[in-house]
Amino acid sequence: MIDLRNKWTAAAICLLLVTLLLGIEARSASSAAAEAAKPDVVGIVTLGDSITAGYEPGMNSSSKPYGYSERLLEQAWFHGKRATLDNYGILGLTTAGLRNYTAAIKDGTPITADSIQPGIADPRLDSFAARAAQTKAAIAEAKLIAITIGGNDVSSLLLEAKDMSESDLKNRIQELLDVYKVNVTAALENLRAVNPNATIIIADQYQPVPQLYAGQSYAKLMGAAESFTQAVDSLAASVTRSDAPVLVAHAASRFAGQEGSLTHIIADSNFHPTQLGYETIAKAFTELIWGDYRVPSTFLTPTASQRPMAIVVNRTELNTPNKPIVRGGQNFLALGDVLKAMGASGKWDSKNASATIVYGGRTVVITIGSKTMQVNGQKIAISSPAFLQKSGKELKTYLPLAALASGLGFDVKYSAQLRTAFINP
């Protein structure tokens, strides 16, 4: 005789297992879909010396740098990327200091000025030490790590070269490069331990002294810079991998013959890039990553007054006769230009004086004069309302750009130096 109780118990257990498995699969699929829907963000971490820090004469602890690192972030936005920047450039850092700093970050050991490099005088070092865990997390999540290092290792040559024989100089350069290779290789290994997959780009060391200033030493110093470039190329080739490349940004060749305009001469052994110099370094990195270095079209023609604001939407600079209007510190665009730039669809409701814009599963409704907008039916406050503006014989609907872009799920960033708003999906 068959025991129906056992039969039904077994069936119930099977049904329960199937239900649980389906629930797990559904949750996994939902989680995967949510992960796939998350916008891709390019985390940029820059490490190294005062060039990474963006130092220029006259800067102090409250100064806001605008060096190659900050330009690299702008270029990511220019090329349609959501991107963040963490800049850990330390004034006076040598390759030994970089090795110590990255080792402490990797191992989670306490960081002090002396543990990085005895005698270092960067006033921001205490704040770097306090953020060691945050630094490790930033490196672990980075997709791009950019490094300038080595200038403080070889700066003594700027003074010594003129009094050294060819053979003595050659031997001295080799000594410095041997130390450079050991320290930088160890630093790269530390970074790879934290982040096995990021693209790492390291700059070679440009020669900063103009020929007029260096005199007969110029040829010797240029030869030293060429030896440095060869050493960096060799080092990168020995550690690069197809899935985790280590590349070289060749800045040295771009400075050759242009040192006077690209470099501040602060003292006999203290040289830092000018703004044009920092742009030159940024170009070396950017062209290696994204192929071209971009500036707003407003920078390409001389203007007698302040340059107008530019707007770049998903790599394309907005070019329309309906120029952006600034009200209350906010930028407004005509409705038709918004739809075209963002690839969104929309319509104008004259009865309610409202615009409805649809993009990527989001619907935004903005009403003329209203201090709120609706995003998927939910009211959200905005600081400046939409308005109507006469253009010729037509009335144009002008919408608050930043509020609308955020409502549609776009990323909005602004560069004060370039006077450019970047809007990326």
UniProtKB/TrEMBL annotation:
Name of the protein: Lysophospholipase L1-like esterase
Organism: Paenibacillus forsythiae
InterPro entries: Cu_amine_oxidase-like_N (IPR012854), GDSL (IPR001087), Mao_N_sf (IPR036582), SGNH_hydro_sf (IPR036514)
Superkingdom of the source species: Bacteria
CDD domains hit by this protein: SGNH_hydrolase
Domain Copper amine oxidase-like N-terminal: 312-423
Gene3D superfamilies for this protein: Copper amine oxidase-like, N-terminal domain, SGNH hydrolase
